[in-house]
Amino acid sequence: MFERLDRCRGLLLGVGALAATCLLASTALAQFQLSSQRAQDGTVYEIISVPNLPSLFGGAEEVRITTLGGSVNGFQTCSQSGTANQPVKAGSGVDTGAGQALHPLSATFRTTVLNVVDPSNVSFTAIGSGRLVIGSTGNQFEVCRESNYCLGHSPIATVSSITQSDANVPAACVASLTAACGSLTTLGFGLASNGTNCTAMPTVSTTICGPRPTDGFTVRKGQAIVIIYNHSLSMQGFSVGAAGFGVDTDNIRGVNCSGSNVVVNADAQNPSAPARAPLPFQKPAPALSALALVATAMLLIGFGLIRLLRPVPVRSVEKSKR
Question: What's the CA gap between 158 and 150, in Å, rounded?
């Protein structure tokens, strides 16, 4: 039997100071990859992806993400895995009782789930609100909180409010976890809500061999989703996190389960994005308007004509002989 409980607690120790005590899951348990990038204005890009590998732990082909979020003053996760028919859990969120606050729903955005083939191929330009490029050649996407920072060298991914839904990702709402992972506040997906707050709890506990959760969204091998946290956070640290369950879809798995689309493991991660010092401000050189350029040209031409038409003084011959 394999069973492990992993927790990560982030605590605010003071203004601008963040510490975390973590027991991180072993790399064998990591079903999805989670990383973040920081732009000049503080915008945070959280990348949730599933590696395009022949086999993931437990034989999973996809991960069902059920909770995620970000915070300037600490973020927590919990996970527990096991063997066939044993309970497992995976959750993430903030502990408001410890002074942590979830990043505002209105300032959180996302792409849809993108088919990038190689989600580990990431480049980032931090100028302004940032430009992220993800994916292998022919399957790359540009992701920008503000579209004018994208160059259009690759297809530009649509960025939507996290409260909107599409064919791959249901609308998000603010949810409360009160069971397996303690009292945490997080973002859930595809749950009944009153518009802002979920009226049901996200899936944070199930069993190995249990059915795929009905809430949340699916990220398959070679896919990624980018969550964007928009705020002026340049001088503050920022933590992001996500949790979900590995799902087997082809009936080839490392645990003895019957049926398809069953849970085979649990995973939760919460890396932090350190504060980023603002880049030096470069004041652009003033540009002349078209009207100013025309006026300047006419002025120069006028001076030239005056100089050309002005009579040249002739020196007296008598004076020159003297």
Answer: 11
DSSP summary character for residue 190: S
Q: What is the pTM of this model?
A: 0.78
Give me the tens of pLDDT residue by residue for the chain, a chain 322 residues long.
Answer: 333 333 343 333 332 333 332 333 333 346 899 999 999 999 999 999 999 988 777 789 999 999 999 999 899 999 988 888 999 999 999 999 999 999 999 999 999 999 999 999 999 999 999 999 999 999 999 999 999 999 999 999 999 999 999 999 999 999 999 867 889 999 999 999 998 999 999 999 999 999 999 999 999 999 999 999 987 676 788 999 999 999 999 888 878 888 889 999 999 999 876 566 455 544 333 444 555 555 656 666 665 555 555 555 545 444 444 4
Per-residue b or e along 173-209, where b marks 16 or more CB atoms closer than 10 Å to that residue's CB: bbbebeebbeebbbbbbbbebeeeebeebbbbbbbbb
The Cα angle at residue 51 between residues 45 and 55, in degrees rounded to 5: 160
Question: φ, ψ for residue 26 (rounded to 5)?
Answer: -65, 155
**Two tokens at 310?**
């002005």
